[in-house]
Structures are given as C-alpha cells and as structure tokens.
Amino acid sequence: MTVHLLTTEEVAERFRTSPATVRYWRHIGIGPAGVRVGRRVLYDEAECDRWWESKVAGQFANGGR
Question: Which domain holds residue 9?
Fold first, then answer.
C-alpha cells in the first residue's frame, strides 16, 4: 500500500486557503485528520479526499446551502 503524505502547505494549496487556516481547522477539529511526525504535521492524501467528499455530501444534504 502506498501512502502519499501532504504537508500543511500542500493541503492549504489543495483547498485554496492559507496554512494558518489548515492549522486552525486541525486545532478546532473540523479539518482533515493530520498526524504529528516530529515537529511536522502530515496529512494522508486519501484522508483529505474523504474529508472533502464528506463536506460536499453535507452541502447536498442541507439543500445546497
């Protein structure tokens, strides 16, 4: 199994936001799950995809709002 890990900066770029926003999402528990490796936080690309799909599915469940 190959796992592709993303940095905070790469996740921010992927979702067109700032690294500070990604860190805030992680702090309050609403963003994709990250794993601390030493001083860095890394994100599994597949987890980021699942998180995004759940956000999109939630939009449709709420009537597209």
Answer: 5-61
